[in-house]
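ESCALATION

Customer reports they have been waiting on this structure for their group meeting. Please prioritize. Original submission:
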Amino acid sequence: MPITSAGCCRPLAAAFVSALVTVAPIAVAPAMAGPLLDAAIEAERLAAQNDARGAFEAIRSGLAAFSQTLPLTVPRALFVTEVPSAYRAYEAKAEPVFMTGEKLITYVEVTGLKWQPASDNQRQSHFTVDLELTDDEGKTLALQKEFGNFTFTAHSDAVEVYTHLTLDVAGAKPGGYVLRYTVNDVIAERSTPFELPFTLKDKS
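Update from on-call: job pushed to the front of the queue and completed.
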């Protein structure tokens, strides 16, 4: 069966986290410190000085650094009715049921990606997505390494990273299937899989 992929990787600036941090007149123990806590304290300090731009950048940078300490994770993956227009801007499919000949569009978020220096003082992430399609009895019907391959270069590490994957299963018979994708962080050399069961039905 023909397999096609179409996707985009659009990290966006993280939304400002509205966090109220009360700074007591005692020092915070070093063991409690971390990029997220440090960023929140600095953002509150700058916000108190009416420096909204600085506060936003402080919390954004802190979130980006914190996310890289987390395991590679897919916090959200679901079938959608059309190509998403932005991070979490999608129309979820009501049920994982497709008519024969209908393409499967999957919205995928990725967190925990590592970033590395790139040319012109920029930063870069790189991940691939492997595909495995099985029937409801576990028999592998299709297997493709690097079904998706995404590199993003920006002036700073991003937090909100997403992509979409489009699978054409033309020729597949009606029945139950399991779509298994594996996200591979090329820079950090680590992977994480996720599965999406679905059903194909005849148009008639």
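Sent to customer with the following note: Strands lie at 77-80, 97-99, 104-110, 116-118, 122-135, 140-154, 161-167, 175-185, 190-201.
Escalation resolved.
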